[in-house]
Specification:
Low-confidence stretches: none
Oligomer: single chain
Strand content: 35-45%
Number of domains: 1
Largest sheet: 5 strands, antiparallel
Mean pLDDT: 84
Number of helices: 3
């Protein structure tokens, strides 16, 4: 499997238009083995993290070894000064042609013209 940076670049190139349409920002590479609060089962996947302004959501797009994507919708809030992750929804087993559509379904934002 490709390294984490290559995976993130591939995801970004595949869904660039969709990301622009939903106003995504703060893109970050998810390194394999990074681990996430409340989502440890996905710690060994590489992918891309981005923020969607409305409805204030953080989206993790992870590439699995089966060449499908796992989308993790969540939110980071500060509780007494400590960042706390809350998972809203996990959608697994998504093929590349359904990722943008799934993002649209989950957020209510349009990803296509």
């Amino acid at each position: 499997m490709a390294n984490s940076k290559e995976i993130a670049q591939t995801i970004l190139s595949q869904f660039c238009t969709a990301f622009m349409m939903i106003g995504a920002k703060k893109f970050a590479v998810i390194s394999e083995g990074a681990g996430f609060i409340d989502v440890p089962e996905f710690a060994h996947y590489g992918g891309l993290q981005l923020d969607i302004p409305k409805p204030s959501t953080r989206l993790l797009i992870l590439l699995t070894p089966m060449d499908t994507y796992t989308l993790v919708f969540g939110r980071v809030r500060r509780v007494k000064g400590v960042p706390t992750w809350t998972t809203k929804k996990i959608v697994e087993g998504i093929y590349v042609d359904r990722v943008a559509e799934t993002i649209s379904e989950q957020t209510g934002l349009y990803t296509k013209f």
